[in-house]
Structure to design on (771 residues):
């Protein structure tokens, strides 16, 4: 008011307007000194219309006005919403004012537009209905409620400031600013909006700052920024202005809706609180859909978002509802460190219970999720591309009985580090490509998802890892997988490390570790305890195998068909037969039955290391176990198989101990020579008148030469002729034995055949081995 008034300043927020301050809006608009110029500051010639401490009745109607004035209202209360639609002004300021609304559609301001510490209140009984006409043939539609503040299609050649202003339209839109153009920034520090803040198509040259703001629209969009373009950053974080006790966090009750938005710098939501109704109409309608990729209760929707800088949803952010950024493009990093996200658990298929949904998103920097807490819900990152690292140590994800973290086919240029985490549910990394290492040291995985064919806690099937896959203990905290680990077909450039791990399986599958078809430079399989379940290493291959007794003692055995390794981390010394026997026994117990391949692999590895003697021992034991398995398979012929095995093993070591054959030959030759060279039989009754028969006595023994060939009796040569089959030295068919001597001769002949057969078999094996 003017200096002539002795009244104290007006309290525009009092419940009952004070009529002593009443000024008719029509009087303000009269020309001359009685009109606008009466409110003009007299100190300068600046084109400012300054009104203070006034209760303005009637409608302040500046619609379509072209006035080169900046209008500033301070401590004013308006009976009706000011109308500046289509107006062209120098600027518009409301400070500590109370308004029942503001109509500014299509206005143009050459300076800032400010509503500072003001209240814009549209009550249900007083809310104004603006006419909208929609031509549909001969039909006309009327009765759409207006917004509390309407800046649709307005152009402001400056900034819009809504600091500490309360804007309420509980049954409609608090702010309606479609396609608003700001050359400057949108500053709404600690603003309170009850109703939708609608900004689709917004264009700003600077930041959009809602730090410390409170947006309430539980049954719809708290902030609708569909397709907006921000020239700076979007800041929805804590406002630290003033003492620490007065810090105020950004809060949105309702959906923060930013699909197809473009932000030239960062999106910052540190310490924000995002809440979406779990029972509102949007959620109810969405639950009826069969679209498996729909998120019916999103706290944040930013599909196709484009951000040149970072997206920070971190440092104490709390979200009750899905954080959804599908097919987004983030030039910097996505930070989730210290955040907490939860979503109500779905009860039927599809589940619709994703806490974080990033399918198809490209992130130029890192995903930082250190100390991220997800007490309920799934983290879904299918087909995500990360230019840096995924870092999430000390995190907690809980989604028991389902996939709690799913990153199928994602590509991470750096490392995937999820150490010392607690995970309830399945960690599914199927088909993931990681340029560095996957490090899950010290992580505990429990309550995996149950499927028709598996119940693994960790699934890295067909993954491609540029360095290490680390599933080991970390400072005394073991890696634990209560549902087992599936690495089937994974390719690891360097090491698969299970040092100090604890692997357990669940019924009905009972697989603690499936590493079939895995290829790596090194396997370190040294768990703390024997894996509880079956271990599968079919067709796996590594350069170096480091293991321990606990690994080979898996409770349900190990499948080792075509498992190949080039060397042992702890080699077997040439003179350590006990170590070799121990390893053979480990193999035998682990397989729980005869399989030739693992013994062949061990022998091949030893032979390649120059340990030929131990390689032969392994091959010999393999044949022994083979015959034992055959004997168990034949009910009636089992004893014969065992006898044949014993003969081969004792005589020539199944061909791997050929020196034994020479020893047996010499022994039999000595025994035969002694037997046939000594005797006590009477020679008289062998006399015959046939001159072709010659009786020769050797001590008390008689032998008969059935043909007079001039051969002289020699028991050594005769024994040699009996022992060597096929080859005839001309003795065994010329000399005739009778009685016991005949049976002994037959025994030597049979022994010779057996010995020759086993020697031939051994020689053939040696030739094949050498080849």
């Amino acid at each position: 008011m003017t200096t002539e008034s002795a009244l104290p300043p007006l309290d525009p927020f009092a419940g009952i307007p004070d009529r002593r301050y009443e000024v008719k809006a029509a009087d303000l608009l009269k020309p001359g000194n009685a009109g606008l110029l009466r409110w003009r500051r007299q100190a300068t010639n600046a084109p400012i219309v300054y009104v203070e401490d006034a209760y303005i009745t009637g409608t302040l109607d500046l619609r379509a006005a072209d006035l080169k004035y900046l209008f500033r209202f301070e401590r004013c209360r308006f009976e009706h919403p000011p109308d500046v639609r289509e107006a062209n002004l120098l600027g518009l300021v409301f400070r500590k004012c109370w308004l029942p609304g503001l109509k500014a559609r299509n206005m143009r301001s050459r300076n800032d537009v400010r509503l500072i510490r003001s209240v814009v209140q549209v009550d249900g009984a007083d809310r104004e209905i603006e006419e909208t006409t929609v031509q549909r043939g001969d039909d006309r539609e009327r009765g759409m409620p207006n917004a509390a503040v309407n800046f649709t299609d307005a152009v402001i050649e400056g900034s819009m400031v809504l600091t500490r202003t309360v804007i309420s339209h509980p049954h409609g839109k608090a702010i309606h600013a479609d396609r608003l153009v700001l050359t400057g920034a949108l500053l709404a520090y600690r603003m309170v909006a009850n109703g939708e803040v609608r900004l689709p198509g917004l264009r700003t040259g600077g930041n959009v700052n809602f730090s410390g703001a409170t947006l309430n629209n539980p049954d719809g969009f708290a902030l609708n920024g569909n397709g907006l373009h921000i020239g700076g950053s979007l800041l929805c974080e804590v406002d630290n202005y003033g003492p620490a006790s007065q810090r105020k966090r950004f809060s949105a009750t309702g959906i923060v809706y930013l699909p197809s938005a473009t932000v030239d710098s960062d999106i910052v939501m540190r310490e924000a609180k995002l809440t979406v109704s779990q029972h509102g109409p949007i959620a109810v309608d969405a639950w009826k859909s069969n679209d498996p990729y729909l998120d019916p209760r999103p706290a944040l929707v930013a599909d196709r978002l484009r951000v040149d800088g970072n997206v920070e949803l971190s440092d104490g952010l709390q979200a009750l509802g899905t954080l959804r950024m599908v097919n987004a493009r983030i030039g910097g990093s996505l930070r989730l460190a210290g955040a907490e996200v939860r979503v109500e658990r779905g009860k039927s298929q599809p589940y619709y219970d994703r806490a974080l949904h990033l399918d198809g998103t490209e992130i130029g920097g890192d995903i930082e999720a250190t100390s991220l807490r997800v007490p309920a819900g799934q983290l879904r990152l299918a087909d995500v591309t990360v230019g840096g690292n995924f870092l999430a140590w000390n995190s907690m994800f809980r989604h028991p009985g389902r996939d709690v973290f799913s990153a199928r086919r994602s590509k991470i240029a750096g490392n995937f580090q999820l150490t010392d985490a607690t995970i309830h549910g399945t960690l599914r990394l199927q088909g993931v490509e990681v340029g560095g290492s996957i490090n899950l040291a010290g992580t505990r995985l429990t309550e995996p998802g149950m499927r028709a064919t598996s119940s693994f806690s960790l699934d890295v099937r067909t993954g491609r890892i540029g360095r290490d896959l680390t599933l080991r203990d970390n400072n005394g905290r073991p890696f634990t997988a209560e549902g087992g680990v599936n690495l089937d077909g994974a390719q690891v450039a360097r090491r698969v490390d299970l040092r100090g791990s604890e692997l357990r399986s669940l019924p009905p599958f009972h697989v603690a570790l499936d590493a079939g078809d895995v290829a790596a430079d090194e396997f370190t399989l040294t768990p703390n305890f024997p894996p509880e379940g079956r271990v599968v290493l079919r067709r796996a291959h590594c350069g170096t195998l480091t293991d321990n007794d606990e690994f080979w003692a898996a409770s349900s055995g190990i499948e080792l068909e075509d498992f190949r390794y080039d060397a042992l981390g702890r080699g077997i010394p040439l003179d350590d037969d006990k170590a070799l026997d121990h390893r053979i026994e480990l193999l035998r117990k682990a397989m729980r039955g005869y399989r030739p391949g693992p013994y062949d692999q061990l022998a091949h590895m030893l032979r390649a290391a120059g340990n030929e003697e131990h390689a032969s021992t392994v091959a010999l034991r393999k044949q022994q176990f083979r015959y034992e398995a055959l004997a168990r398979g034949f009910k009636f012929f089992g004893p014969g198989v065992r006898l044949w095995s014993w003969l081969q093993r004792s005589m020539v070591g199944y061909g791997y101990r050929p020196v034994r054959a020479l020893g047996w030959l010499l022994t039999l030759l000595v025994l035969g020579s002694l037997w046939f060279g000594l005797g006590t039989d009477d020679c008289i009754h062998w006399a015959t008148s046939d001159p072709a028969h010659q009786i020769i006595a050797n001590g008390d023994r008689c032998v008969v030469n059935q043909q007079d060939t001039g051969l002289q009796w020699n028991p050594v040569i005769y024994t040699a002729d009996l022992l060597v089959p096929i080859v005839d030295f001309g003795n065994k068919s010329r000399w005739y034995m009778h009685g016991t001597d005949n049976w002994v001769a037959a025994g030597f002949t049979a022994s010779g055949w057996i010995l020759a057969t086993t020697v031939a078999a051994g020689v053939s094996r040696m030739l094949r081995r050498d080849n």
User: Anything to note?
Assistant: The longest helix spans residues 740-770.
